[in-house]
Amino acid sequence: MVEGRLKGQAASLAVVHEGLHGFDFKEGEVRLSVLRSAAYCHEQGFKLGDRPTRKLMDQGVHELRLLVTAGDAAAVRRSVSGLADWLSAPPAVYAHLPIGRAASDDSSHALDWLGSLPQNLRLLACKQSWDRAALIIRLQELAGVATEFALPARRGESAAFTFRPYEIKTLRLERDGSIRAVDLIREC
User: Residues 40, 48: contact at Cβ < 8 Å?
Assistant: First the structure.
């Protein structure tokens, strides 16, 4: 990601990829290295002869996937980790999470907040607690930006959490709707 000014406005450009071998920015261009390097280095003393030709360079299938995004620097920084997840893996599927609503439940679903996670927070884990009395979720901030996020707790209330840059938090969602941070090690 590079930041600068475009027509007097702060802007940034990010290239999201699946592990390109190298890239750089020079004179207004993004330059990508899509070839692999040699299997050996000549400066290590290996004598290169005329024959036989060694076919060790750039072997195998190349699959190149990248995404370019630009805009407001803060917005681009928040979106990069999610775009990398989207680019490199199929979407996360949590088959064990309940869907829909009970016929008698007129409130919003307890897990509706999953769709409102800030772009720079990632759900790392979602599981039943060891005592089987609650749901444990683990979230991580991935953009290096302090972030506040409020989870809906008891009816009409919310539990606010502040994430430091790159911080991981493990939260316990009780059946009564209360939420609290718990020890990452004890609830792994």
Answer: no
